[in-house]
Amino acid sequence: MNKLKKYYKDAKEELLKVIFPIKEQIRSAYLSVFVVVTVISLFLALIDAIMSLSLSAVIN
């Protein structure tokens, strides 16, 4: 039982050391991820269209 109490106490102390992000940091990170995912998606769509057109030209 002592080990469980010590574990709980240690976990609580470690949790107090954690610095949680503020709303602006979360918003900024979300926006960054959204922009990067959008750019990569558009790039892959462009590559897919180019490859599709070139493969269609080769087959026909």
From TrEMBL:
It comes from the Bacteria. The chain crosses the membrane at residues 29-59. Its main location: membrane. One of its GO terms (molecular function) is protein transmembrane transporter activity. GO terms for cellular component: plasma membrane. One of its GO terms (biological process) is protein targeting. Pfam families: SecE. The keyword Calcium does not apply. It is found in: Cell membrane; Membrane. Keywords: Cell membrane, Membrane, Protein transport, Translocation, Transmembrane, Transmembrane helix, Transport. It is a single-pass membrane protein. Belongs to the SecE/SEC61-gamma family. Component of the Sec protein translocase complex. Heterotrimer consisting of SecY, SecE and SecG subunits. The heterotrimers can form oligomers, although 1 heterotrimer is thought to be able to translocate proteins. Interacts with the ribosome. Interacts with SecDF, and other proteins may be involved. Interacts with SecA. HAMAP family: SecE. Essential subunit of the Sec protein translocation channel SecYEG. Clamps together the 2 halves of SecY. May contact the channel plug during translocation. This is Protein translocase subunit SecE. The gene is secE.
